[in-house]
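Changelog note: in this version the structure field was regenerated for every chain. One regenerated record is shown below for reference.
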Amino acid sequence: MSFQIRPTREILVVPALPPALRRLPELGLNILWSWNHSMRAVFRRLDPAAWKASNHNPVVMLGRVEQVALERAAADPRYLTLYKRACEILDTYVEATPPNSLLIAYFSMEYGLLDCLPIYSGGLGVLSGDHLKASSDALLPLIGVGLLYQNGFLQQKLDPDGWQQEGTPVNDFYSLPITPVTRPDGGGELLVSIELSGTEVFLKVWSIQVGRVKLYLLDSNIPQNASEEYREITNQLYGGDDLKRIRQEIVLGIGGLRALKALGLNPTVYHMNEGHSAFLAIERIRVLMADQGLSFDEALHASRANNVFTTHTSVPAGIDRFDAGLVREHFSLYCQKAGINLDAFLALGRAAGADPSEPFSMAVLAMQTASFRNAVSRLHRQVSQEMWDYLWPSLPVWEVPIAAITNGVHLTSWIYGDLATIYDQHLQPDWRVGHNDPEIWRQTADIPASELWEAHRRRKRRMVAFVRERAVASALARNAPAPVVDRAAELLDPAVLTIGFARRFATYKRATLVFRDLARLKKILTNAAMPVQIVIAGKAHPKDIPGKTLIREIVQLSRDPELAGRVVFVEDYGIEVASEMVQGVDLWLNTPRRGEEACGTSGMKASINGVLSLSILDGWFDEAAEDSGGWAIGNREPYRPDQDDAHAAAIYSLLENEIVPMYYEARDEDVPTKWMERVKQCLRYVSANYNCQRMIDDYHWQLYQPADRAWEAMARDKFAAARQHAVWGQQVNQLWPQVRFLEASAGPGTAVLAGASLPLRARIDLAGLSAADVRVEALVGKIGPQGELEEAQVVTLDPLEQETAQQGTAFMFGRQFSPLTTGRLGFSVRITPNHYTDPLNRPCNAPIKWMA
C-alpha cells in the first residue's frame, strides 16, 4: 500500500452565497425538495448543467456552481420569486406539528431516498424511504433509524460480453444532504457505544431531514475505533460474511436504541422493518430490567406490547440466520452483565423445542418479541401464515396472527412533473394532501385524454433521450468502436409501444420469461405496422451468479441484428433509472413466480403515471388486477415449473391480440381512445388505493395506535401489568396441564332450520383457574369431504355458570349461534389463556387446548 498523508485538522468549506440566497443550503438539507417540484426547481434553474453533473445533489451543486451564476440568480427577480416561494413552502410545511404524544421509531437496514445517497439496494430500501416521506406528509410522529454506509451498495457496469461488474461508490458524508448530530447538552458531536466481544465500539450519529421526519444513521468508521475491523462494520450494505452481518445488525438494533436514548427520545412504538433490527427487542428488555427492576419474563412481556414487525420475505432463504456459536460469542458477556439467561435469549430466535444447535433466526426473534406482525400484501399474508405456522402449532394456518397491510408508493415522489401540473388544473387543489381519497381520483374522468396522451408522449421522448445518453456513456467508457457509439445514440423510437421491465435480478422474477419463444417475440417486436420495443434494467447481487447470467443473456439478445435497437438494457439501475422508466414506458411487465413476490412496488410506481401493467397475479397485483386497467398473466394457481411455457405464451397472446392492437388502432386525432380509457381507470384506481398515504393510514390505525395504547397501559403504575402477568403466568403454567374438557353440545342434535338459534355449550374443568383467566372459543364451519372443518367461523363462548367438580372447578361456557348456511355443519372447541392477550396478537407457542 502506498504512503498516505492523513490530515491533522479538518476545515469545512461552505459556498459563499449572496445574502439574498442565504437559505439555499437549508433548502438543500431538507430533502423535501426531492418530492416537491417547486423546491427542486430552485436548484435546477440555478444551473441546470451543475444540477445534472452533481447527480441531483444540492450540497455538491452549491459547492461547484460558479460565483457569477449565484450573483446572476440573486439579481434575477424571476429566480428570486421561485426561491422565496420555495422558502415559504418549506416554512409552512415544517411548522405543522404532530397532534399527540405518539412517537414511532422505525428501524430499517436501508433507505432509498435519493439517487445520490446509495445506502439502499432495492425495493425494501425504497419502501423505507417512501415510508418516511409519507409519514412526514401525514404529520405522523415518526423517526427513522438506520446505518450510514461508507460505500454505496453497488455501481453496475457491464463488460463487452454483458457480464455485470461491480463498482463501489464512496460516500463523502460532507458532500451529501446529511449532518452530524450534536449532543443535547451542546458538548460536540453525538457518539454512542456498544460492546462487541469485550471491545467498546463507538458509533457516530448523523441525521437526514426528511420533511418533518428525522432519519438517524449510525457510522462506525470513525477515529475513536482503533481497529479497522470495527471501523468497517458500516463499510457497506449487505457486504461481507455472517460476522460482519451480525455486527451490523447489533449496531442497528442495539446502537440505534442507544442513540435514541442519548437524544432524549422516548418512542411509544418500535417498528422493525424486516428482521435485521430485531436485536432492539433484546436491548429494550435489558433497559427495562435495569431501569424498572423487571425480571426477564416481565420485561419481555412489557416490551412485546408495542413492538411491530413487518416481514417482506416469501421464502426461508431470504431470512438472516446466524450460527448459534456466533450469537453466543457476541451476546455471552452482554447477557451476563444484563442478568439475562443466555439460553432464554437464544430460545427467542428458535421455534419451541428446537435443537440447541439450530441457527438463530432474526425473523423468529422479531416474531416472538412483537405483538403486532404484518405482511405486505394480502397474498403475502397467506404465504407468511403458511411459512410461519410452525411457531403457532396449535392454530390453523388461516389464524396465524399476521396481518396484511399492502405496500404503497409515495405518489408525489414518483409522478412526473407534467402529470402533476395536469392534476393541479383538473383535480381539487389539495390533491397532494388528500391523495388517498377516492373522490379526488374520480375527477380524472374530467381530464381530456388528449392532455394525458400528449404529456405522456413528452415524457416518453425524455426517457428515450435518457436511455440513449446512458448507452452512449457506457459505450464510450468501455472504448467501444465508433459505429457502436453511433448506434447507441439512436436506440429506441419514441413513437413505438414500449414495454418496461426493471427490478432486482433475482431468478424468481423470471427476467427472461418474455424471451422464452424468441421467434414469436421477434414477430411481435418487428411488426412493421405495429412495432414494439423493450427497455430492461436491474442489478444482480454480487454473489448471485444465476442473476448475472440472466443479465448477460438479455444483453447478448439485444445484439441480435433483428432485435438491435428494439431490446435495450440500461446499466446501473437506481432511483433515477427507475423514475425515468416508470414514467416513460407504455406497459410494465412483471413476471415473478406466484407467491414469491411479497408485494412488488415497481408496478405501482408505473401505474400512478398511467403506465398499464402486464403482470403475474402476485403481490399487490393479485388484489388489484381486475380494477387496474392492466392485463393478468395466468391465473391464481400456485406456481409450478411447468407453467413457464404457458405464462410466456400468455404474454405473447395478450400482446398480439389485445395490447398491441389497442395501442395502435381506434385512434381519435392520433389518441388511442380505448388505451386511454384504461389509462384513466389505472390512474383513478391505483392512485387512490396503492399510494403510501393509504399505507401509512393503515399502519397508523391498525398497528401504531393499538401498540401505543398497549404501551400506555403496560407502563402504568410502574409496569404493574407486567409484574401481574408474570405471577399469573406462573399460575397458568402450573395448572394448565390439569385443565380439561368435560363435554360440548350444540342444540338438540337434530336437523335445524337455517337462521334458527342454536345453543353452543362447552363444560370445562379449569383446575382452579377462573373464567376470566381463559378464552373459550368454538370454531363452526362446514364439514369437508375429508371430515375437516371448512370456512370456519370463530365464536367466543361466554362463561354461563359455575359448578363444583370432583377435581376442581367446572364452568359452563356458551353462546347462541344462528347458522346461515345449509348442509353439514360441525364445530370444535378450544381454550387458551386470556390475560392481557388480544387473540390477534397471540404470542408464539401460546398454550391452546382443543377438545378431542
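Spot check on this record: The longest strand covers residues 789-805. The first helix runs from residue 24 to 29.
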